[in-house]
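Appendix B.2, paired examples.
Example (i):
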Amino acid sequence: MDPRSHDRPVLDMTPEGEFRGPAPRPTTWLDRLLMRLGGVAALVAIVAVGIVVAGIAVAFFALALPVALVAGLVAFGSLWWRAKRNGRAFRMSATMMRR
């Protein structure tokens, strides 16, 4: 018998010609504990990613809000100045012409 025979893979076939996988190892209390701990860790990671995404959304809103306010004030000032130069009273109304 070859001394290196234990290093070679063993191919186990069924009578139908299909390969069998390796026999499953028996589970111990440590395997079950680690599986439950891994599930809890995955849940904590998903919650943490959700919190990070919400934080990024809040930060984007906090940065975009002042920019939008300044742009709105500039637009209002521009429209007000044009109306004042044309000698019209500034009203927030639109007129529509009919044919």
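Example (ii):
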Amino acid sequence: MTHDPADLTVADYLDGAREMAAAGRPFLAHLLAEEAARRVDDPATARSIRPQYTDPTTDRG
């Protein structure tokens, strides 16, 4: 992994999101996925990323 965040790719952020989700860290997974979605050029791809890692702090009830 790189030490310069500017060198990270969308795939790097999504890999991190998957790792954080697997480690039981849903908020960090959400933040990493949001950054991945922000960096994607295609809006449809960005929209497909966000629902996979929803914000666990949002009250939906």
